[in-house]
């Protein structure tokens, strides 16, 4: 089955930017990839999705216009570009295809 490894999380100041990477391996017959996040004490929530073949994306209102999901299919990677980060964006971020998840990468937005 496909495996996901998230990376790129770090401490960043409010208003800053960060790019997360999702590296896929194993079975790569994955049509759609989603980014989810889980903030401390909260349920895991959807961030956005991307169709790998077309690059079409969708986002939840909380990140719309600030976050961008993209793909590099030759490298079997999916990215989450995060701009104008806010403290409420602090969470562990995961990539998935609906059933299989990575271990997540922590993003902390604080001054």
Structural topology:
Layout: E1 3-7, E2 11-12, E3 18-25, E4 32-38, E5 45-51, E6 57-59, E7 67-72, E8 77-82, E9 91-96, E10 105-109
Parallel strand pairs: 2-10
Antiparallel strand pairs: 1-3, 3-8, 4-5, 4-9, 5-6, 7-8, 9-10
Key descriptive features of the protein:
six-stranded mixed sheet, 111 residues, single chain, mainly beta, globular, four-stranded antiparallel sheet
Describe, in plain words, how this protein is organized in 3D.
With 111 residues, this protein is mostly beta strands. It is 0% helix and 50% strand. The protein has no helices and ten strands. It has strands at 3-7, 11-12, 18-25, 32-38, 45-51, 57-59, 67-72, 77-82, 91-96, 105-109. It has a six-stranded mixed sheet with strand order 2-10-9-4-5-6, with no helix packed on it. It has a four-stranded antiparallel sheet with strand order 1-3-8-7, with no helix packed on it. A hairpin with an 8-residue loop joins strand 9 and strand 10. The chain is globular and about 40 Å long. The mean pLDDT is 95.
């Amino acid at each position: 089955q496909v495996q996901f490894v998230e990376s790129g999380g770090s401490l960043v100041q409010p208003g800053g930017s960060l790019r997360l990477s999702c590296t896929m391996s194993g079975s790569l017959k994955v049509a759609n990839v989603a980014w989810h996040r889980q903030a401390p004490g909260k349920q895991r929530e959807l961030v956005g999705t991307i169709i790998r073949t077309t690059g079409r994306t969708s986002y939840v209102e909380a990140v719309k216009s600030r976050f961008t999901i993209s793909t590099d299919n030759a490298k079997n990677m999916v990215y989450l570009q995060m701009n104008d980060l806010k403290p409420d964006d602090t969470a562990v971020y995961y990539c998935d295809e609906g059933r299989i998840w990575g271990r997540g990468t922590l993003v902390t937005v604080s001054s």
